Amino acid sequence: MIVAVVALLVLFFLFVELVAAIAPVLIIVTLVPREDRPALAHLLAQVDSSRRLRIWPALRAATAQRRETLSGRSPGGPRR
User: Fold this and answer.
1) Local confidence band at 8 (pLDDT 50, 70, 90 cut-offs)
2) Of 44, 46, 66, 79, which one's alpha carbon is 20 to 30 angstroms from that of 56?
3) End-to-end alpha-carbon separation of the chain, Å?
4) Whether the predicted pLDDT of 10 surpasses 90
């Protein structure tokens, strides 16, 4: 009985890991336009390169750059 429960738990975790590995590829292939795929692949490679999630610094940098672009200021210019 215990062996069956342990085997089911192992199979469950194996299934979850496989789905987690396949899901990003399926999303990219089905939902992302062809011209945006290289940029997204680069972003995913940067995020997956270490255990620590590094997307927040990249998101903050992209947001700051977008705000500077919209406001017409030069990067590193005077701040309000």
Assistant:
1) very high
2) 79
3) 67
4) yes
What are the Cα distances from residue 55, in Å, to 41, 47, 51, 52, 74? 13, 6, 12, 9, 24
Q: Which residue from 24, 27, 64 is spatially nearest to 44, judged by alpha carbons?
A: 24
Counted residue by residue, the chain has a size of 80
Residue with tokens 């903050």: 60
Using H for helix, E for strand and C for coil, what is the string for the chain? CHHHHHHHHHHHHHHHHHHHHHHHHHHHHHHCCHHHHHHHHHHHHHHHCCCCCCHHHHHHHHHHHHHHHHHCCCCCCCCC
Q: Examine the pLDDT at 64 and tell me if it is beyond 60.
A: yes
- For 40: left if phi > 0, alpha if psi spans -120 to 50, otherwise beta; the answer is alpha
